């Protein structure tokens, strides 16, 4: 009786020790190691991947690699940066079936984004940024319906933004900034209920802002440095959670006096447009006065500038080159008529 209890105790101890060592060792799955070595080979064994050695565990010691610690213990995170040779993105990336996050660049990848990524059924986050990638945004990306974040910024992409991106219903963040994209912004924004981050800055996008963009509650919305025209008032609203809105350097024309601002607003840049009307008093009540940044210069605004609150520390340059703005920090409104 007594010895069997000791036996049971030892057995449990053994079991516990085995479980402990299995969880702490984090051994690279052999299939993942094989796939990663193929990627390294496809990239001509670059110095950036010199830590990828079979003598060490890919989950713990290979640069840019992470494994899922909780469940699968498979590679779920891949970063490839500072690849100096101009080479295509390795199609072998798709042989890591548990990938959740792919971050490529800065690197001299010449593209294209491999179609093989379609086989990755756990992919949430795809970033290809600061590469030599050119051509159009591939249509097949819209079939990776698990995507929540798509970042293709700082490349040489051209052509139009594909309407098919509307199929990415889980999308929360889209960054296509600093490319050469042209044509209108497609009317796809009713498709993304959880959208919070949109960055289309510094492209050659033209035409009107689509109505559906007014239905998203984005925290960051940057459309600056394009050729957008017409109304942008649908992007505003006191019920939105916008903290950064940058529409500068476009050809937008609408009545600013009719909009309401998000209470969370921390940065508003509408400079270099054709916006008219007055500045609503409510703008002084948003955000906090310490960190609020504002630029309304180079527009057609008119009337008395509201004072106090968030606007207390805003200098004259934020209001420069408008039609007839007046009052502190610009010259007083009564003097205006004597010019
Ligand atoms: C890309 O190639 C250029 C020229 O060889 C090199 O100077 C640069 O460092 C490379 N970029 C990266 C991110 O490796
Ligand atoms: C939106 O977010 C909520 C909460 O995180 C989540 O339950 C829901 O599935 C998301 N909807 C979509 C379409 O991704
Ligand atoms: C969004 O803004 C509303 C009203 O201003 C506020 O009640 C809500 O808590 C905000 N939501 C988030 C996620 O910050
Ligand atoms: C708006 O974007 C431009 C270009 O990206 C940048 O220079 C400017 O500082 C931004 N405005 C604000 C208020 O952040």
From the structure above, extract its key features.
Leucine-rich repeat, LRR (right-handed beta-alpha superhelix), alpha/beta, Leucine-rich repeat-containing N-terminal plant-type domain-containing protein, 339 residues, 20 strands, elongated, 6-stranded parallel β-sheet, LRR_N_plant-typ, binds 2-acetamido-2-deoxy-beta-D-glucopyranose, 4 helices, 11-stranded mixed β-sheet
Task: Annotate the secondary structure layout.
Blueprint: H1 2-25, H2 30-42, H3 58-61, E1 65-67, E2 75-80, E3 101-104, E4 125-128, E5 134-135, E6 149-151, E7 156-159, E8 173-175, E9 180-183, E10 197-199, E11 204-208, E12 220-222, E13 227-230, E14 244-246, E15 251-252, E16 267-269, E17 276-277, E18 293-295, E19 300-304, E20 324-326, H4 333-336
Parallel strand pairs: 2-3, 3-4, 4-6, 5-7, 6-8, 7-9, 8-10, 9-11, 10-12, 11-13, 12-14, 13-15, 14-16, 16-18, 17-19, 19-20
Antiparallel strand pairs: 1-2
The structure holds 2-acetamido-2-deoxy-beta-D-glucopyranose (4 copies).
Explain this structure.
The protein has four helices and 20 strands. The N and C termini lie far apart (107 Å). Helix content is 13%, strand content 20%. It is elongated, with a radius of gyration of 27 Å. β1 (65-67) and β2 (75-80) form a beta hairpin. With 339 residues, the chain is α/β, with parallel strands linked by helices. The chain has a domain at 22-99 and 112-121: Ribonuclease Inhibitor (Leucine-rich repeat, LRR (right-handed beta-alpha superhelix), Alpha-Beta Horseshoe), CATH 3.80.10. Strands 1-2-3-4-6-8-10-12-14-16-18 form an eleven-stranded mixed sheet. A six-stranded parallel sheet has the order 5-7-9-11-13-15, with no helix packed on it. The protein binds 2-acetamido-2-deoxy-beta-D-glucopyranose (4 copies). Residues 1-21 form the signal peptide.
């Amino acid at each position: 009786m007594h010895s069997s209890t000791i036996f049971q105790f030892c057995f449990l101890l053994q079991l516990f020790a085995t479980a402990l060592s299995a969880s702490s060792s984090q051994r690279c799955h052999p299939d993942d190691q094989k796939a990663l070595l193929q990627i390294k080979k496809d990239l001509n064994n670059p110095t950036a991947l010199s830590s990828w050695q079979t003598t060490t565990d890919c989950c713990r010691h290979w640069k840019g690699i992470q494994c899922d610690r909780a469940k699968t213990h498979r590679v779920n995170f891949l970063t490839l940066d500072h690849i100096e040779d101009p080479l295509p993105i390795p199609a072998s990336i798709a042989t890591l079936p548990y990938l959740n996050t792919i971050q490529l660049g800065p690197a001299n990848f010449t593209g294209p984004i491999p179609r093989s990524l379609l086989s990755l059924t756990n992919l949430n986050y795809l970033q290809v940024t600061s590469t030599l990638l050119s051509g159009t945004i591939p249509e097949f990306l819209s079939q990776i319906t698990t995507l929540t974040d798509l970042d293709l910024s700082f490349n040489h992409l051209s052509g139009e933004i594909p309407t098919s991106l509307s199929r990415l219903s889980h999308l929360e963040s889209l960054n296509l900034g600093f490319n050469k994209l042209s044509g209108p912004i497609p009317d796809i924004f009713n498709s993304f209920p959880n959208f919070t981050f949109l960055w289309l800055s510094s492209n050659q996008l033209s035409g009107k802002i689509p109505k559906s963009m007014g239905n998203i509650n984005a925290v960051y919305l940057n459309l600056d440095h394009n050729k957008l025209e017409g109304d942008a008032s649908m992007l505003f609203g006191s019920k939105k959670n916008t903290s950064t809105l940058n529409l500068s350097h476009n050809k937008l024309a609408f009545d600013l006096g009719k909009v309401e601002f998000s209470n969370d607003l921390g940065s508003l840049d509408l400079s270099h447009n054709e916006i008219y009307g007055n500045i609503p008093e409510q703008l002084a009540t948003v955000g906090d006065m310490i960190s609020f940044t504002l630029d309304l210069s180079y527009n057609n605004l008119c009337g008395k500038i509201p004072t106090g609150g968030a606007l207390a520390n805003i200098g004259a340059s934020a209001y420069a080159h408008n039609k007839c703005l007046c009052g502190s920090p610009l010259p007083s409104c009564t003097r205006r008529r004597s010019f």
